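Sequence only, no structure available. Ideas?
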Amino acid sequence: MAINETASDVVLNVVPWDHPHAEQLRAAQRADIVARYGGNFEPGHRPTAADIAVFVVAYDGATPIGCGAFRDLVDEQPTVEVKRMYVRPEYRGRKIGQLILRDLEARARERGAMRVRLETGTRQPEAVRLYEGAGYRQIPNFGDYVDAPTSLCYERILDATR
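Reply:
I predicted one. Tokens follow.
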């Protein structure tokens, strides 16, 4: 898979964790989470440049409009955990989240992953719709999320053809 992928007018680029557009989108995602849950809410281990394997930014022209990332789950190889999925509100409903998610899955598969896990929250119905619509099934909360009452965990087994 190429580093750049175009679907209609959206382009996906892999960027470093500390790229200005990555930082901008993560800040917007954080503000969205704070608005939904209040305070400095994060039930699990916060991702960092040291543990994120891939960070993807979606662009509409030169405008960064969404992002997603994954990290390897060291204790559960070959599994990755999707993190920091976000699409700016004005771009939602255009299947951009689905495009980012499928791109992350393909990149995970290229790295040898056979399973993708993720956590979202009970106050994020659009994320739940995205993941369930993409074939993820809800699983018992795992890792840091086991005792997090607002966490919903999902998993998808990757096949070789998709």
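The two ends are 12 Å apart (CA to CA).
Hope that gets you unstuck.
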